[in-house]
Amino acid sequence: MDKITWKTESRNVKDLKTWEENPRTIDEGSFKDLKDSVEQDGDWGVLVIDTDGTVISGNQRLKAIEGKVDVKVPNRPLTDKERKRIADCKGGAPLGRP
User: Fold this and answer.
1) 15: Cβ–Cβ under 8 A, 6 or more apart, which residues?
2) What angle is formed at CA 29 by the lines to CA 19 and CA 38, rounded to 5 degrees?
3) Closest-CA residue to 74 (of 19, 4, 3)
């Protein structure tokens, strides 16, 4: 299988979909804090999506933002194993970020 490479694109939030198997959850209070943060500071993060527009990392932020958003898109569809590995990466650098 080809090595995964990533490119950054701008997408409309309405064209993205949440990942039903997302292993991360957020409680109501934390979601309110996230939404308040996005309203105050803007969304300065980058969502990670699969080639079909499914959000792999950033599902909670997706619910808190509107309009266009920057996304990282792989060069090929991800396997289920790759989706889970990327989604589970907590504080790591899956996309070359420090």
Assistant:
1) 53
2) 65
3) 4
Q: Which of 30, 26, 10, 28 is nearest to 18 (CA)?
A: 26
Buried b (16+ CB within 10 A) or exposed e, 58-89: bbbbbebbeeebebbbbeeebeeebbbebbee
Nearest to 22 by CA among 50, 49, 57, 63: 57
- Percent of the residues in the chain that have a pLDDT greater than 90, as a whole number: 46
CB-CB contact of 43 with 13 (8 Å): no
Flag whether pLDDT at 40 surpasses 90.
Answer: no
Q: For the segment 84-94, what is each residue's pLDDT rounded down to a tens digit?
A: 999 887 544 44
Over its C-alpha atoms, the chain yields an Rg (Å, rounded) of 13
pTM score: 0.77
